[in-house]
Amino acid sequence: WAILFSHPKDFTPVCTTEFSAVAQLSDEWAKRGTKVIGVSVDGVEDHKKWKGDIETYGKAAAGFPIIADEGLAVSKAFDMLPAEAYMPDGRTPAHSATVRSVFIIGPDKQLKLSMTYPMSVGRNFAEILRALDGLQMSTSNGVATPANWVPGEDVIIPPNVSNEDAKAKFGEFETIFPYLRKTKAPS
Fold it and tell me: Order of strands across the sheet with 101-105?
């Protein structure tokens, strides 16, 4: 699993708090077998200097790489910027404000989830962890997760699984509606 999280510019206040949160969660990423990588449209030298601020603010080592996307190849490949975009001299974060996304990529190298945030709202990494847990649960067990699901709670049996197959695979389950059946989360 991989998480790519992008930022419009180094040395921005909200992004600094977000990179710090990612650094603080290094054990959580490892526990889930997930690699994290940042993307910013600034260069390597700025990234090196900014990492000091990230580590000071978060009181944790920022042990993940940050892609220097000065040519905007990654930002354009992930549709965060239009193909004709460029960064003018003297640019501000507003020039690349749409580079504020999170992408969760599965082991099959397919995009599983994307979320885009405005520059004024910090990302909720508890939600990103919860979504990652749900994706890992669903892809490895053939289930779905309901709204506000957290690990340990019941999961949904997909409608394309017959009652007979559900009983064989999951044992007991609860039928709320013919299309909504819940069972204990596989461990």
Answer: 66-68, 35-40, 2-7, 101-105, 111-116
Q: How many angstroms from the chain centroid is the CA of residue 171?
A: 32
Question: Which pLDDT tens digit goes with each residue over 95-142?
Answer: 455 567 899 999 999 999 999 888 889 999 999 999 999 999 999 999
- Average pLDDT for residues 159-175, to the nearest whole number? 97
> What b/e sequence results for 7-24 when a residue is b if at least 16 CB atoms lie within 10 Å of its CB, and e otherwise?
bbbbebebbbebbbbbbb
- Catalytic (active site) residue 1: no
Q: Identify the active-site residue in 15, 21, 66, 105.
A: 15
Q: How many residues does the chain have?
A: 187
Beta carbons within 8 Å of 21's beta carbon, 6+ residues apart: 58, 123, 125
Question: Terminal CA-to-CA distance of the chain, rounded, Å?
Answer: 19
How much of the chain exceeds pLDDT 70, in percent? 90
pLDDT value of position 93: 52
Q: How far is 87 from 103, CA to CA, in rounded Å? A: 23
Asked whether the whole model's pTM tops 0.85, one would answer yes
Helix, strand, coil share of the chain (percent; to 5): 35, 20, 45
